[in-house]
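Chapter summary example.
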Amino acid sequence: MRDLRECVIPFPIQLSMETILQDQKVIGEEAKKAMKQILSDIQDGTFAKDWILENQAGRPHFLAMREEHAETLASKTGQDLRQKMGWKQVQDLDQAR
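The structure predicted for these 97 residues follows.
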C-alpha cells in the first residue's frame, strides 16, 4: 500500500491531508500504554484468571458493562441496522442477550 504522501492530490486537499497525517495521531500514547498493559495481562495469565473468577461469580461486571453498552447510540444504531438487513443469524445476536 502506498503512503498517502506519495499520491498526486490537488494542493488544498493535499495540505489538509498532510496536516492530518502529521498533527493528529489515531492512537495516542495513553491508548498505546493501555494496550500494552492489556497485552501483558493476557500474556501473564492475569486476564484469564480474572475472567474465570468473573464467570464463577455470575459475571456481574460483564453483564453490567453489556447493559451499559446496550444504551449507547452505537449499539442502538447497530441493532436497528441488523433488523433492516433481515439476516436471521445477525438478528440472533440481539436476542442472545
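To summarize the output: The chain has six helices and no strands.
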